[in-house]
Amino acid sequence: MNNPKNFVDEMIDGILAAHPDQLECINNKFSGLIVKGSPKNNKVGLLTGGGSGHLPLFLGYVGKGMLDGCAIGNIFASPSAKTMLELTKAVNGGKGVIYIYGNYGGDVINFNMAAEMADMEGIIVEQILGNDDVASAPKGSEANRRGVAGIFFIYKIAGACAEEMASIEEVKRIAEKTKDNVRTMGVGLYPCILPEVGKPTFEIDEGDMEIGIGIHGEPGIMKGILKPVDEIVEEIMEKILADLPFNPGTEVAVLINGLGATPKEELYIIYRKVHQILKSNAINVYYPYLGEFATSLEMAGMSISLLNLDDELKYFLSKPAYTPFFSQLQL
Question: How would DSSP label each residue in 140-196?
Fold first, then answer.
């Protein structure tokens, strides 16, 4: 790094320098990025936002077939309501705007405030809160759960629906349906270090693990000695499969996500066991995604997300998308 205080601005400057044909900042400020050439007339605008330190979440999914813009906060800090309002105006193509973001207190406050200000300016805004983290609240209290890597599926499917020029009501419906059918749980092995702090934000002892840990180091549901990967996957999959009916014969999309410092080779070892468990439960994998989709700086660990699919969700998931951090051809 250079000066830690400049960490986020220098990161955004680098992203814009690398992808000038795809992204631009609003009002010459690094606090918000949009798809170059926004807004697109008669298309529902899709916005997200959150603290930096999670690439490619959140701003990595701004691009064709996914999101139209992202509000950028400091490391692990919510973006401002003012930035969200500026982005809302920038991506509004006349059919309204949908905010899709994780269920965190600061984000909820600021996004709600931005939606109220947009309403006063005559812009229709709907909101979708990602809450896929099974470990963060018990079954029956899903509204209290955090949003983690599974929000990728909401971006992907809602983005494909909006790309087909659907109404705001239809895009919101498909986004809600996706949200209701995705579940995630992760494990942390080593903490992250905030640039301006210079030391770990929480502690995991050498040789230990924490199942259910959040992407900011929020407490998980179990701490203990690090186990072999198959045993960790079995514990996580047992909890995910028990939380939502994944019936025999159904199809799922699988997301194996690294938290920032986990080699891809290990993610494939994880997927190997996930695939075995799904096969033993007569659950078919429609498509697996492996890589870093929602990180926490250099945290070591991983998360597993399952999306329960039907024909409608498969249709939109299969559509192409192209962003600086993620691309997909027609499946």
Answer: T-GGGPPP-TTHHHHHHHHHHHHHTT--HHHHHHHHHHHHHTEEEEEEEEE--B-TT
Q: Which tokens sit at 208?
A: 């230990």
Alpha-carbon gap, residue 241 to 296, rounded angstroms: 25
The CA distances from residue 73 to 80, 84, 140, in Å, are 7, 11, 31
19 is catalytic: no
In the chain, which residue ranges form alpha helices assigned H by DSSP?
7-18, 81-91, 105-120, 151-163, 168-180, 229-243, 264-280, 311-317
Q: What are the beta bridge partners of residue 287?
A: 253
Give the tens place of pLDDT for each residue, 50-108: 999 999 999 999 999 999 999 999 999 999 999 999 999 999 999 999 999 999 999 99
Let me know if 216 is a catalytic residue. yes
Bridge partners (DSSP) listed for residue 327? 322
**Active-site pick, 40, 54, 95, 172:** 54
Q: Where are the domains of the chain?
A: 8-180, 182-316
Q: Which of 40, 216, 273, 319 is catalytic?
A: 216
CATH assignment of 182-316, among 3.30.1180.20, 3.40.309.10, 3.40.50.10420, 3.30.930.10: 3.30.1180.20
Distance of alpha carbon 58 from alpha carbon 135, whole angstroms: 21
- For the domain made up of 8-180, give the CATH fold: Rossmann fold (3.40.50)
Whether the bond into 58 is cis, omega within 30 of 0: yes
